[in-house]
Amino acid sequence: MPPKRIIVALLLAASLIGFIDAAYLTAKHYLGAPPPAGASGDVKR
What pTM did the predictor assign? Predict the structure, then answer.
């Protein structure tokens, strides 16, 4: 694969991952579930 095609493929993959993440967080928001905490899990309320 030429370098240009690799870059396009990586950008497409990153865009797809971002879209899926945004859709997941939007669904969680509208279903009333709290968003997931960070990796440390240290969330103060």
Answer: 0.65
